[in-house]
Every structure is written in C-alpha cells, then in structure tokens.
Design a protein that fits this description.
heterotrimer; A mainly alpha (about 300); B alpha/beta (about 250); C alpha/beta (about 280); A: about 300 residues; mainly alpha; MetI-like fold; about 0% strand; flat; C: about 280 residues; alpha/beta; 5-stranded antiparallel beta sheet; globular
C-alpha cells in the first residue's frame, strides 16, 4: 500500500515535471514537447486504435516463430483446403495444405519490410527534391518539377509494373518500384510548404545570420515539412500495401512460396468460389493494417499540424 | 559604433512591364551612434529600404556605405556580424519548432563564438528574460517575450548597427513601452547605431534624433526631431502626417 | 429605452487545464451613443462584441443574466432568430477588410446579395441601393467599385465598403471591432468620420472596440476599460485622461507623446489585485 502511494506520487511528480512550462534543460524541453503531443494523440480514440493494431503487428512480426503453430512453408497435401475452424488449423489451409494462420503471421514480416523501406525511400526523396526546388527556385525548380510531373503523369501501378518488368520480379525490386512511383506527391507537397516557409520572417532572420542554403533547408525548412509528410505517408501507407499486394497478386512482387499477403490472395483466387477463406483471410489482414495506418494518420495530423502550434 | 550612409538608393520588384519601383533615389545619413527614424504610410517603401540594406531584397542600385566602406551586393558573415535587424512581427520571426536556446545557440555558433552556454544566458539577462526562459518554445511565450528573444538574437553577434522594422507595432501599448525602454537601454549599453522604421510618429519621436519622411518610395524630407516636435516641418506632406497623427478626428 | 442591455456576461472556454474565462461577469448598456470598449489583447473586448451576436464557436459558452435588444431577450434566441438579428438589427465590422470580403466575388455582387438577403427587392433596386450606400461612405465612383474585386481596392476603400455593406439593412446597432487598426492614420480619420456621420444621422448605437486609448477618447462618448475579462473603469470619453484606475492611468502613461518628450516611458506594473476586483457596471 505504502509503496503504491509513493509510486503514484513519483508518477505524479514525473507528470508535472513533463508538463512544466519552464523546462530546465534541452532534454527536458524535448521530452515535455513529446509528452504533450502524446497526450493530444491519446485523446483521439480512433488513432489510438490504429496505433494499437500497428504495435500488435510489429510484435507479431517480431515473435512470429514462437507464435506460428506450423512452418509456413510446410506442405501437407492430405490437409488441403481445410475450412476455417478445422482442428489444428484455426484459419484453415490453402491449396497445398499450408496453415493460413502461420503464413499470415510470417507474412506480416514481409508487409512491415515493404512498408518500412518505402516509407524510408519515397518521402525522403520527395522531401529533398521538393525543398530544394522550392527554396532555390529558378531553373532548378523548373527542371525538378517537370521531372516530377513526368512521374506523376503515369498511372502508379502501370509505372511500377514497368519498373519491375525491367528490373526483374522480387520483393526488393517491388519496393524500389513502388518508391519510384510514390515520391512525386511528396515532392509537390514539400515544395508547396517550402514556398510558404521561404518567405517567412524567421527564414529571413537566419539568413541575416549568414546561414547558407544547406543549413536553412535541413535545419529550418525540413522540420516544418516533415510533420505534414509523416501524416501524408501514414495516409498513403494503405495504398502502398495495396500496390505491393497488387504486384504480388500479378506475380511481379514476392515470389511463391513466400507468404506475402498479396501473393496469398493471388493463389487463393482460383478457389474463391468453393474455398472463399483462402483469399479472404489475407485480404482482411491487408484491410485491417491499411485501416490502422489511415486512422493513425488522421490522428497524427491533429497532433503534428504546425499551423496548430500556436494553441 | 558605425555610421551608415545611403545614397541614391533604388529598389524595385519584378522585371519589364511588371516592374514596381518601391524606393526611388532615397538618400540619408545616420551618424555613428545616432538613432534614425524612417516614417511613412504603408507602401511608402520604408521597410523595403531596411530589406535592401540587409540584402534580403537583391534588386537594388545605388550606394550603401558603412563607415565609408561600400556594401557589396554579396554580403558575407562579417557584414552580418556588424549589422543586424529586428523584425516587425514577433509571431512570425521565430521558428515555431525551435526553442529559445536553439535560436540563440545556432546564431552564436554561426558567428563562431565558443562560449555559447554563458553567452546564451547573458543575452537572456540582457533582454530581461533570464535563464528560466531558455528552453521554452515560442508558443509558450507572450508577444513581448518573443520580441525580446528576437532582440537577443539580433544582439548575439554583437553588432554595431541595429535595424528595427516596426518592432512594437504588433504589441500592446504597455508592452510597447517596455520594449522601447529596453531598446534605449541596450543602445547606451552596447553603443549601437539605430535605424528604426515606424508608422507611429510618436514612437519615432521618442526613440530617434533624426527622421526621414517617406511617401510613394521617395524621401520627401529629412528633419531633426526638435523641428518635428515644434510642428515646423518644411514639407506639406510631413505637416499633414503630423496633423493626422496628433488629431484623428480632424481630416 | 436602451438599445442594448447586457448583464453579468461570461464567456467560457473549456481547455485541457480547466475552464478559461475570457469574459468574467460584465454588465453594460448601450444607448444611442458611441460606446468605446478598450483594453489590451486578452482583455476580452473582442469576445464581448462577438458574444452579443452569439458568434462564439463551441466549445466556447456564453452565459449571462440577460442580453436584451431593446427590451427583448436575445440570450436564448434560436439560431434562426439570431440570423435575423445579425446584419439586419445588429451589424459588425471587423478589423481587416481583406478577410471579411469574399475574394472571388465582385464588391457589387456581395453588397447586392447582402441586401437581398434581408430585403425583398429586385436586383436592380438592390443595385441602386448599393450605389447609394457607397456614395454615403464617400466613394466617388461607385459604379467602378461595384465591378471591382476585393483585391483591387485599397485597405481604406475595403473598410468603407464593409461599412457600406453593414449599413444597408439599416441596423440599430453597429459593432466595430478595431475597424481602423489595419489602416494608415490619414485613412483612419476618413473612415472614422464616415462612421461617425452615419451613426449620428441615423440615431444608431455604436460599440467601438479598440486597443487605442487616444482614438477612443476622441471618437466615443463613453468608454469601458477592460482588464482580464472585467470592466475596471467606466468614464466619459472626454474625461478619459482624468481616469482614476491605476490600470487606465498606466496605459495612458505608457504611450510615447510627441508633445511631451521624456527619457523613459513608464512601464505598466500590473497589480494582481486588479484581477480580483469586482467588475464595474456600465449599465445606464
């Protein structure tokens, strides 16, 4: 009882320390700002729901070998196409008698791998192109933006298909292809933000301290662009997962027997009428994760929007 | 202390048929250690002159001299160590994601100072904020406190000339008094030369020794503050401006 | 009868750290006069103006004993009734005309639409009335201004257009929230002159909200001085310079003056006591 009260008192004072309006060190200030953002995100129940799903996904991917009841590649041809709820196979088996639940669990690793790589490549490329074009202006702007327009003019999936066809099928190439098609919207967004930021007084002020363009772009413009990019990425994540699944479905992404969700749907397509669960279960998984990213993105927009910073 | 001299300054925006001449052949001198005011209505080009001096507007012609040395179109860090500017709107002149500490440290770092920690604290003391404000973000500060941070930033490189672009027009009158007092104190302590832009004649009258009155990009009159107080300007427009600012209803 | 009576008005905003009271229990009336409300930012002066028209957005709340427009209660009026009051009986002019005019409609279309919203009139009649009003606010070639888009007119012209628009339905009360703060001094005089004349000719009541003490002292009949959501002092405008409350005196002394040079301005020292003092009644 006594330890509990001291604990809660320590917690209380830690909370107060975090919410202090007069931070005493750099670390304190940063922690306090992060904590306040977290509090605001926590008020949005839907976003917390999305975040919960994503955290669960990461945990599942991390402990997949301990969680999965079977080897995802083990074929038991005598147990083909068992329905949902069969003994020992909670989500049934596919056409080669592989346990769908196990494949789903291992597949989460591939999904996370794709999502992480694309989320690292596309927005960063877009941020660089967009901020440079926006800040430098003139010819640089024209050339970079026309290149962006060319990429934007193609339908995404068709362009990705062309890239994969040229580079060869496989999960790495699929990631690369998706990233190559995904960066132009980020470049546009970053450029638009840069144009408004560029003319503001605080940029003039740092120019008057003799700061060069590289410092201004990386230290002063990026931090303001990044929040809207993060929001955009989380909202786009659903599309990225679907494109990856689409490539998998068309046989240009992950190759069998890999348990990539899109490839799983593709395999299950043949039995859709008689054995609906083979394609539907991975479809539901894609749907859930996409929805989670969308919900989180919506919540992050409220937390990160720099225009809201005044409140 | 440095003196500043502007000769025949032209500033324009745009090219060809879109060209707008914002400042036309403006000339004035600011004595070393003096305090000079630029007044006029909006669009008269008074702020544009400051932006041309600092190099924020690259399209200008004419002569700008500091202590007899010509200012070159490309200004280096040495120039910005000598001349600094405080902006009008303290809500727009601080980076929303940078704490006071980041703002001041980065400025000091850019100018090659080594003892950054002690200097940040000293700057905060100088502008009457104190170390308690060091790790706050702009949204945790009031308008007056923000403007103090902006002044501290301008003082960080230890400049000799300070350009003030309507430093109090976004603030309440009681805060304005505090900031104007602070600026007067800093001017004596740090031996600064001031060039102050304002639309408020009484503010300029309080702060400056000499005033240039601007209209449509031209300097119509340069006069001493005593002459202005006695309401004896030579120019009719100056007279009109004095009349309306002393008496709102009569116009 | 007074045009407006407000008693014990509160404007409250719930925040994460408790309820913030922007206006804390103020009472005042408006006769056929020019009533000034002065204060610094955060004093609640703009909130007072908006609260009268119930323009406080949720989660903000308005509470009052009564808000009576010519003896009729306004406080619990429905949205529909309030819409009828806004514009036709009480009008409001905001600080910056740039943000109050629709940028993609011509000035003429906006004025005509505003007129036809409150009156059954043909377009032609509305147009004639619009021209009449623009002339009343000293716009010399109203035909040209009617065809112009808001970005094509200057700040002073824009504000005069706003005033013209607000005057068309013949309101009994005009609330002007810092109507001249975005304007140059010389234009400021013109706009004030026009407002003054309209108010006097039509026997209207004017609530003039401003941060500028000298302006209010010259322009208004009676002044309420607000501090931290309360009225600290009520006085006749021409006696403002003899104000008794230390806050009012402090504000006046902190202004630099061209005719009385001094080395240092007096900085206002805020007494925490001022926040606690009861609100002074501005009822007539």
């Amino acid at each position: 009882m006594t330890t509990e009260t001291t604990n809660s008192r320590a917690e209380q004072s830690f909370r107060e320390w975090l919410l202090s309006e007069t931070p005493s060190s750099r670390r304190h200030a940063r922690l306090a700002a992060a904590y306040k953002g977290w509090l605001r995100l926590r008020r949005n129940h839907m976003a917390m729901f999305g975040l919960g799903i994503l955290v669960a996904l990461v945990i599942i991917a991390a402990i997949a070998p301990w969680l999965a009841p079977y080897d995802p590649y083990a074929q038991v041809l005598s147990d083909r196409l068992l329905p949902i709820g069969s003994e020992g196979h909670l989500l049934g088996t596919d056409s080669l008698g592989r346990d769908i639940l196990s494949r789903l669990i291992y597949g989460s690793r591939i999904t996370l791998y794709i999502v992480t790589l694309v989320a690292l490549i596309a927005p960063v490329a877009g941020l660089m192109v967009g901020t440079i074009a926006g800040y430098v202006g003139g010819w640089t702007d024209t050339i970079l933006m026309r290149i962006t327009d060319i990429f934007l003019a193609f339908p995404k999936l068709v362009l990705a298909l062309a890239f994969v066809a040229a580079l060869g099928a496989g999960i790495e190439n699929a990631v690369l292809a998706i990233s190559l098609t995904a960066w132009p919207p980020y470049a546009r967004l970053a450029r638009a933000e840069t144009l408004t930021i560029r003319s503001s007084d605080f940029i003039s002020a740092i120019r008057l301290q003799g700061a060069g363009p590289v410092r201004i772009i990386t230290r002063h413009i990026w931090p303001l662009c990044i929040s809207s990019l993060i929001v955009r990425v989380t909202l786009d994540m659903a599309g990225i997962i679907l494109t990856a699944a689409g490539l998998g479905f068309l046989g240009l992404g992950a190759q069998p027997p890999s348990p990539e969700w899109g490839a799983m749907i593709s395999e299950g397509r043949r039995f859709l009428l008689d054995h609906w669960w083979v394609a539907t279960i991975p479809g539901l998984a894609i749907f859930t994760v996409s929805l989670a990213f969308n919900l989180l993105g919506d919540g992050l927009r409220d937390v990160l929007d720099p225009k809201d910073g005044k409140s | 202390m440095k003196s500043l001299s502007v000769r025949n300054l032209n500033v324009w925006f745009g090219e060809g048929p879109d060209r707008v001449d914002a400042v036309k052949a403006a000339s004035f001198d600011v004595a070393s250690g003096g305090s000079f005011g630029l007044v006029g209505e909006s669009g008269s080009g008074k702020s544009t002159i400051l932006r041309a001096i600092t190099g924020l507007v690259p399209t200008w012609s004419g002569d700008i001299e500091i202590d007899g040395d010509h200012v070159l179109p490309k200004r280096g860090r040495a120039f910005y160590k000598m001349l600094q500017m405080v902006f009008q709107d303290p809500y727009a002149s601080l980076h929303p994601r940078h704490s006071v500490d980041q703002v001041l440290s980065e400025t000091l770092q850019l100018h090659g100072f080594k003892d950054i920690d002690t200097r940040v604290n000293r700057l905060l003391d100088d502008v009457g904020l104190g170390a308690a404000f060091r790790f706050r973000y702009p949204h945790q500060l009031s308008g007056g406190q923000r403007q103090r941070v902006a002044i501290a930033r301008a003082l960080a490189p230890e400049p000799e000339i300070l350009l003030l672009d309507e430093p109090t027009s976004a603030l309440d009158v009681s805060v304005q008094a505090e900031i104007l007092n602070l600026l007067s104190d800093l001017r004596t302590e740090h031996k600064l030369t001031f060039v102050m832009v304002s639309h408020d004649l009484s503010v300029v009258g309080h702060m400056c020794d000499n005033v240039a009155v601007m209209r449509d990009g031209e300097v119509v009159e340069v006069l001493g503050i005593e002459k202005m107080r006695r309401m004896e300007p030579d120019n009719a427009y100056t007279k009109h401006l004095l009349d309306v600012s002393l008496n709102y209803a009569s116009s | 009868m007074n045009l407006l009576d407000v008693e014990d008005l509160w404007v409250r905003f719930p925040t994460s750290s408790g309820v913030f009271d922007a206006v804390r229990g103020i009472s005042f009336s408006l006769g056929r006069e020019r009533l000034g409300i002065v204060g610094e930012s955060g004093s609640g002066k703009s909130m007072t103006g908006r609260a009268i028209l119930q323009l406080i957005r949720p989660p903000g709340r308005i509470e009052a004993k009564r808000i009576d427009l010519q003896g009729k209660p306004l406080l619990n009026a429905s949205d529909k009734e309030m819409r009828a009051v806004r514009g036709s009986r009480i009008s409001m002019v905001m600080q910056d005309p740039k943000f109050s005019l629709n940028p993609v409609m011509t000035v003429g279309d906006q004025i005509i639409e505003a007129y036809r919203l409150h009156n059954k009139a043909s377009r032609r009649d509305a147009r004639a009335r619009a021209i009449e009003m623009l002339e009343a606010v000293s716009i010399r070639n109203p035909e040209r201004v009617l065809r112009a888009y808001p970005h094509e007119v200057s700040g002073g012209m824009g504000q005069r257009i706003m005033i013209a628009m607000m005057m068309i339905p013949n309101p009994q009360i005009l609330i002007a929230d810092e109507p001249t703060s975005a304007l140059d001094v010389s234009v400021q005089g013109q706009v004030l002159g026009i407002m003054n004349q309209l108010v006097q000719d039509r026997g209207m009541g004017l609530i003039f909200i401003s941060h500028d003490l000298n302006l209010v002292a010259e322009f208004c009949d009676r002044v309420l001085i607000m501090y931290a959501g309360r009225i600290v002092e009520v006085c006749e405008a021409d006696k403002l310079h003899e104000a008794k409350h230390p806050y009012t005196q402090g504000l006046l002394n902190s202004l630099p003056r061209l005719d009385e040079p001094k080395d240092r301005l007096e900085a206002l020292v805020r007494d925490p006591e001022w926040r606690q003092q009861p609100s002074v009644s501005g009822l007539l």
